Each structure stands twice: as structure tokens, then as C-alpha cells.
Amino acid sequence: MKKIFMAILSAVLACGIGVAAVGCGGSKDEIIVVSREDGSGTRSAFIELTGVQSKDADGNKVDNTVKTAETINSTGAVVSYIAKTDKAIGYISYGSLDSTVKAISVDGVAPSVATIKDGSYKISRPFNIAYKAETLESNDLLADFVEYVLSTEGQKIVEEEKYIPLDETESYVTEESFTTKKIVVSGSSSVSPVMKKIIEAYETLNAGKGIDVELQESDSSAGMKDAAKGTSQLGMASRELSDSEKETLTGIVMATDGIAVIVNTANPCGNLTLEQIRQIYVGEKENWADVGVTFEA
Fold first, then answer.
1. Which of 48, 189, 212, 293 is the most exposed place for a label (fewest CB within 10 A)?
2. How many Å apart are CA 177 and CA 159, to the nearest integer?
3. pLDDT tens, 50-60?
4. Is residue 119 located within the same domain as residue 150?
5. Is residue 5 part of a domain?
6. Tell me, what's the pLDDT at 27?
7. The domain that contains 107 carries what CATH number?
């Protein structure tokens, strides 16, 4: 009896210390999965492109992201979390990548403007702007701003911000004045950084005309709802528009973006296959050792 008691005590102590940090039977190298919130265009594109999304027997889309994933509500917050969490993995817009985190290769191909443009980097998606056709027709400021976004000058900013610009553009010509003085642009936190730069350049070009282009950052789905309801005049989505959104809105691709899979700079992982990424995000691979990554003791 004494031996049995001591064996049980040893097991309890083993669960409480050492391996302990992640629970009895766990691993100190457990993968911390980081995802975006429902409604995020980055999440929608990521789960579709990596196979995390599947379809049920009725053909409905199913998001199989593991339920233990940390859900974070903006691109910047994902970067901040990964930068301070050495066992975490997440995904962000390539254009938002900075030196505080590390982008890994996917199937041996690193994300870059060149690899996104030639299609060799597989995780990429469009940046869309969307509006109601009747709003564009009646709002001269909105029509002019959309023209600027798609112009040679607007697309130069897209390229400077590390996104893939449109191939065919025309030079922007400023209007003398505007009947409408203010528009609101709302939606995706992935599109927002480059849109902010575009708005700043546009307002500088049109200084003295009393115009205001307000930027409201949320997520892709919220941006489409805003534009459809008229609470904003232009929505931003970091994904394709859904069929239901297309019934109300006209969408235009303003750029192409890669989705960078990111880890902490101390993480030795440098490459994962697309299938390994899927396995991590659906919970089939729970420890870094399961995908061939070993941390120093």
C-alpha cells in the first residue's frame, strides 16, 4: 500500500512541476495557435487557402480552427502577441510585416513581393474596396477618391507599402472643387495601413478644398455592412466579396497581398508545408516537435 501511495504521490508531483507548465501529459514546446476574429478578411482568406476551412454534407463552409486558439482582433495586436510569445504562430498581411517577428517559408518559398506576384508563394489574397453603385454616382468626392486609389499615383503607394499594385493604371487629375465634402472609409485592419497612406496623399493633393476622408478600422465583414447600410461610403475587405455582399455592393480589387505566417524571432522554425500549417490550425499537431522544430533546453 505504501508503495502504491508513493507512486501516486510521485505522479502528482510530476504533474505539478517541470512538465507542469503546460499541464500533466503536456509539453513545454506546445504550439500556441493565434488566429484572427470571426469577420476578419485575413482569417477568411487564410482558412480557405490553407485548407483549415472545409464543407459539411450540405455544402456549408466550416471553419475548423482549433478551439484553443488565441483569437486576436487586429493585425497589430497579432504582431505584438507573437513578438513576446516564443512558442506562438500566427498570420498577418505581408505588408504589415516588421522586424519584431519572423515570417516563415511555406513549402520552401519565402513570402516576398516577387513570390506573391508570380504565385509561387501560395497564401495570397486580394484587397478589395466596395461601394453601392448609386452612392458612387451621386457622390463626387467618393468617385474621385476611388479614381485616385486605382490611379498610377495611388498604386505607387500600394507598391511602396509592399503590396502588389495593379498592372494597368492611369494618371490622376485633380478636380477643382467637390460638392460632397466628407466620406467615410471603413473595414479591414489589414487594408487600413495602406489606405491611411493613400488618404494622406489624396488630401495633400486636394488641400484647400475643404474635404475630409475619414478612416475607420474594423474588419472586412463590418466594412461591407457599413458600405451597404450607408454608414460609410467605401468599405475595405482583405478577401473576396461574398455572393450576398455582391448583391448590394460593387467590389474592385485595389491590390494583392500575401498572408505571412509568423513566429517569434527566437523560434527556430524557418519553413512549414501548407499541410503542416493546416494540421497546426485544426489541432492535429499540438507540439513544435510534431512538425520537426526543436527548441534549445
1. 212
2. 29
3. 999 998 998 88
4. no
5. no
6. 62
7. 3.40.190.10
Looking at the structure, do residues 177 and 86 belong to the same domain, yes or no?
Answer: no
Residue of 163, 221, 185, 191 lying closest to 44 (CA atoms): 221
Q: Is residue 37 part of a domain?
A: yes
Angle of helix 152-160 versus helix 192-205 axis, rounded to 10: 140
Q: In which region does residue 214 sit, left (phi positive, over 0), alpha (psi from -120 to 50) or beta (all else)?
A: beta
Statement to judge: residues 269 and 173 lie in one domain: no
Q: At what angle do helices 152-160 and 140-149 cross, to 10 degrees?
A: 50
Burial label, 13 (beta-carbon count in 10 A; 0-12, 13-18, 19+):
exposed
The partner residues of 90 in beta bridges, in order of sequence, read 262
The pTM of this model reads 0.81
Rounded distance, CA 165 to CA 161, Å?
Answer: 10
Q: Which structural domain, as residue segments, surrounds residue 243?
A: 126-257
What's the structural domain count of the chain? Answer: 2
CA–CA separation, 220 vs 39, rounded Å? 6
Whole-number Å distance between alpha carbons of 77 and 83:
10
pLDDT in tens, 149-160: 999 999 999 999
